[in-house]
UniProtKB/TrEMBL annotation:
Transmembrane segments: none annotated. GO terms for biological process: proteolysis. It is found in: Endoplasmic reticulum; Golgi apparatus; Lysosome; Secreted. This is Carboxypeptidase Q. It comes from Pseudoalteromonas caenipelagi. It comes from the Bacteria. GO terms for molecular function: carboxypeptidase activity; metal ion binding; metallodipeptidase activity. GO terms for cellular component: extracellular region; lysosome. Its main location: endoplasmic reticulum. Residues 258-446 form the Peptidase M28 domain.
């Protein structure tokens, strides 16, 4: 037996050596403990249930947004975080009141739609006009000037389904700038097939922009089955008219807060691992997948670490404000901490639902790769594969950090195959989250954050 063990140790020397160099056997035992504890705990589920039920939807600037800030602060305090504080962030405050739609010609039928974020209102009786369909945003951009006067432009682009959500980027262009491009051609309203992979009759909202000097026209997404219906009618040669009625309000500049909880490190308290999600959500659902899950699981992960052993470096859970309206909390956070971004030894955001984490990826310097491999080894029992590309981008709230500095960024890639069935809809509710998957996510973040905080060598980022 002894001989066999000696032989095995000789066969797997590399990872073993790195683990021994970077982590003590006690630390590795603690990683195992934290993983088991997270897998057997309901804490992340309890937090998510409380946030989505007792607070509900959390549109930035709403009463519920204020409640969510108070909720997060109180939860951090009750969970025993060493430091809990708020940092303000401003954003364009927008609200939705009522919305409805109908096909009025060739026959009257309901149209399931939703205003896109920042959309202006229609007149109180709505806008009724003929629809002109484009398969892509580029097709709309190529349309002759004035060709859409008194018309409603409709972009019918279909998003692709993919495990890593790579269909989102190409589809979201039509949401961000579709209304601007339509207005340039004279359209009086803009309508798009939802940025969605679903066949259910929910419209998907999301942020959109106007451009100075281009008229602001009502801006809406329709449910995919309704887009199919319009497409059938138009392709059959019918002249199709619809009525769109959106009642919204631009309330000027709003203020919300990033809520931050820290487990203070024992040896290098200034250095910290940043994990988190965004506290705000769209108003249609209860923001369970986007991003209640990320909030709950990162709060729980840090709590499990603290309960097992105080880390050497700090672990900071940042719950970003107003992500949905344009990363306003993240911009404020990284601006406020601009002179101390070097203190961030690792950063990862969970903002892609609550399905299983399948891959672990870094963006670090070559000298830090052995630590990454050691972490990957401790994530493997959770069914997580090590992705060697070393090109992790982290979550959306880490974009301002990546732009400002070469911080070490990590991604715990979640299976996003179904994410865009629910994203930004009335259907983003707690029942879409599987408790066991949430536990696996929590365990993954706990293992990652604990090891990043405890490595002997400080992680460093990959130079751009
Ligand atoms: Zn999100």
């Amino acid at each position: 037996m002894k001989k066999l063990l000696t032989t095995l140790c000789a066969i797997v020397p590399l990872i073993g050596t790195v683990q021994a160099q970077e982590f003590t056997s006690t630390q590795l035992e603690q990683v195992k403990q934290v993983r088991e504890q997270a897998l057997n705990s309901d804490l992340s589920w309890q937090l998510l249930e409380s946030l989505t039920s007792e607070v509900g939807p959390r549109l930035p600037g709403s009463e519920n947004d204020k409640k969510a800030v108070a909720w997060a602060k109180q939860q951090f305090e009750q969970l025993g975080f060493d430091k809990v504080w708020l940092e303000p962030a401003t954003f364009p405050h927008w609200r939705r009141y009522r919305e409805s739609g109908a096909i009025v010609s060739p026959s009257t039928q309901p149209l399931h739609l939703t205003a896109l974020g920042n959309s202006v209102s229609t007149p109180t009786d709505g806008i009724t006009a003929a629809v002109v369909m484009f398969e892509t945003l580029d097709e709309l951009i190529a349309a002759p000037k004035k060709s859409l006067e008194n018309k409603i432009a409709f972009v019918n682009y279909r998003m692709n389904r993919h495990i890593d959500g790579n269909g989102y980027g190409p589809a979201v262009r039509a949401r961000s700038s579709g209304a601007v491009e339509a207005a340039k051609k004279g359209a009086i309203a803009y309508m798009m097939r939802s940025v969605s992979t679903s066949h259910h009759r929910f419209a998907h909202t999301g942020n959109s922009r106007y451009q100075e000097g281009v008229s602001k026209i009502p801006n809406t997404a329709i449910a995919n089955p309704d887009a199919d219906q319009l497409e059938r009618l138009i392709k059959a040669g019918h002249a199709v008219s619809v009525n769109i009625n959106l009642q919204t309000e631009d309330l000027g500049e709003g203020t919300s807060y990033n809520v931050i909880g820290e487990i203070t490190g024992s040896e290098y308290p200034e250095h910290y691992v940043l994990i988190g999600g965004h506290l705000d959500s769209w108003d249609l659902g209860t923001g369970a997948l986007d991003d209640g899950a990320g909030v709950a699981l990162t709060m729980a992960a840090a709590t499990h670490i603290k309960q097992v052993a105080r880390p050497k470096r700090s672990i900071r859970v940042v719950l970003f404000a107003a992500e949905e309206l344009g990363l306003w909390g993240a911009k404020a956070y990284f601006k406020q901490h601009a002179d101390k971004l070097d203190n961030i030894v690792a950063a990862a955001e969970s903002d892609f639902g609550a399905d299983l984490v399948y891959g672990f990826e870094s963006s670090v310097s070559a000298t830090s790769l052995p630590i990454v491999r050691a972490i990957a080894q401790q994530l493997a029992p959770l069914g997580i594969e090590y992705i060697r590309a070393n090109s992790a981008r982290g979550g959306p709230d880490l974009i301002p950090l990546r732009q400002a500095t070469d911080a070490p960024i990590f991604a715990l890639h979640q299976n996003g195959t179904d994410y865009f069935d629910y994203h930004h809809t009335a259907d983003d509710t707690l029942d879409k989250v599987a408790p066991d998957k949430l536990k696996q996510n929590t365990a993954a973040y706990a293992v990652f954050a604990m090891m990043a905080a405890n490595a002997k060598t400080t992680l460093t980022g990959k130079a751009k």
